[in-house]
Amino acid sequence: MLKARGTWIWWAEAFLLLALVMVSPSAVLSQQDELAAEKEDQANAGAAPKLAGVRLKVALPITGTVDTDVKQSLQKLLSRLTDKDERPVVILELDGGPEGQSRGSEFERSLAIARFLTSKEATRLKTVAYLKGPIEGHAVLIPLACEQIVMHPDAELGNAGIDEGSISNTMRHAYEEIAGFRNVLPPQLALGMLDPSLEVYRVNDRRFVNGEEYAQLKNDGQVATSEKLVPRGQMALFTANKLRQDLQLISHVSENYRQLAALLEIPENQITQDLGLNRDWKAARFVMDGEISNRMVQRTSLSMQDAVTRGVNFMLIELKSRGGDPVACENMVNFLLGLPDTVHTVALVTEEATSNASLIAMACDEIAVSPNARLGGEGIYQYTEQGRADLENYLAKISIEANRSWSIWGAMNDPDLKVFRYERPGTTLTKYLSEREARELQDAKQWKQGPEVTQAGIPLQLTGTKALDWGVADSEATSVSDVTRRYGLPDELEIPKQNWAHQFIEILASPGLAMFCLFIGVIALISEFKAPGVGVPGFVAAMCLGLFFWSRFLNGTAGWLEAMLIIGGLFFILLELLVLPGFGIFGLGGGAMFIAGIVLAMQTFIWPSTDYELDQVPYSLGTILVIFSGMIAAAFFAKHVLPRTPFLNQTMLDAPDDEAMEEIRRRETIVDLTHLVGNTGLALTPLRPSGKAKIGHEIVSVTSDGDMIEKGDKVVVVQVRGNYAIVRSASQ
């Protein structure tokens, strides 16, 4: 029994030893693989740190609660950071504007912001001052307190003491302290901006000293080269080019945020957002669901405009569309880009925004997408070859204002536009550009073209995940609450209700009412021509045609061209009826102009060239049918109804019956003038073209056959019609 037990123990130990021998190498290899993967992740993380950028606009002038608002905004950002986060880049935008809005900034409040920016707490942030326009007054303290200064080419910096009658020692010490902490601009130069009693020199190219220090250095023979930068009696005011190219004190000059992103080596989509960290948001929600039409755009833009007047500064636009009318989409883009800077727009795409509906998202300040959303690609509208060229030029024009690269958005609608991945060697920056946009970059030589990301003949379509990875979209959101939660707003935002004025405009813009107004207007217009002088049909015609054109204008399909065609057509028709009867060309041409204006007012194109435009043709043909139906109805009304209508029947003469016609002919033949044909005589009155003439011994009514004949000229009778003769000048 013991022997058997020992045998089993021996076999167990042998089996355990064998298992350890087999498992240990795989365990070691697995551990090595995990370590290698971890090292690779660390290497990748070290090679490609993802920087975050936040843009904060500082209200100018710095008065009231501006200092506390800025500090609270920065503190709110600091509270979000963890120990593992990289230092976010905070761009403090100061826009002096053309009228010097920075003047009037209070010294204490400006100094409070500057001291916070130089505090130990703010070392977690990389601060960059971006100056647009002239920055004067004590607002100068803010760029002095930042780690980096970037200026717009038109910006200026200086005249810090412009609002002060005298400069106190407290101010001098403050400017010297703030400038000395960062040393972006030398303290002596900062004092030269503040105190007009100082002189500032640049000595030996890189040293800046005041007048007393300059005199001492010159006496000691330490001055090789010198330049007086600030004369006594003036405050320093430097342009961007002076500070960058000549003095080499600021890091960059940038025209827009796209250039600024590239200069700071930050992904473009990380810097385009104005998060407004501590703003008091008043929000509204708008839904654009279905085909994009002029009617939808007009309704949405009117609601947005009304919201702005009510103080709304946050607009969430839910996009669920496969595109639509290109003119309507373009109008919506222009409207969004034209909103005030104080209004923050967010496009939310949870399902799809394909074809040219994607352009509406491009025009928003922020694009939030769900991972499975579809952005771009085939939709309702396909651009023609000329349309794609026009679209490319349009996107290139608005891209600066939209602060977005345009190539991706162009490729979403143009299957022939090639987009490539571009990289900037030595950095982790990437862009997705067409060759045209790449050539137009200011630093084009610093970007290297990579592989093509588009497929020939297929419009580019991105999922939400890829749009986020490529920097096309800015944030991820699967619902309205995902967006509102980030801004401290209620989970669900109410959609503004239309007021009575908007509802009335909506009714006017309906095609049915437009057709009705056109039909009645044509009937009334022809009735006025049949019975001139009454005014009632003319008034009705003016009202109906005016309502028709207004409804088409509100719908976005009518403009100055259509108005000129309609008004010009009516003018030539009246000219034909009242001034030049019987000639024909003015009447026919005026009628053609009138019909062309009406048809064009019903559509956004002149000649259909795409499937979408062909679908609109029936409406145009229906317009022509309505016009001719109105003409027929007007003729019937004038012949059968108007003569039997009280009061109106007095405005028209009944057609003479057979007996009346015979009486008219009898009266006209009472005087027989046929014997005068071929005889000559004298014009007793000017013939222009009718008048009196003496033929032989008879004085008769005559009419010139074309030329104007003066009084006393000899005339010859060429024809007789009833009781008057037709004459021409005897000299012919």
TrEMBL record:
All copies of domain NfeD-like C-terminal, residue ranges: 676-728
Top-level taxon of origin: Bacteria
Pfam families: NfeD, NfeD_membrane
Keywords, alphabetical: Membrane, Transmembrane, Transmembrane helix
Coiled-coil residues: none
Compartment list: Membrane
Domain NfeD integral membrane: 513-635
Transmembrane segments: 507-527, 534-553, 559-578, 585-607, 619-638
InterPro entries: ClpP/crotonase-like_dom_sf (IPR029045), Membrane_assoc_protease (IPR052165), NA-bd_OB-fold (IPR012340), NfeD-like_C (IPR002810), NfeD_membrane (IPR056739)
Cellular-component GO terms for this entry: plasma membrane
Membrane topology listed for this record: Multi-pass membrane protein
Protein name: Uncharacterized protein
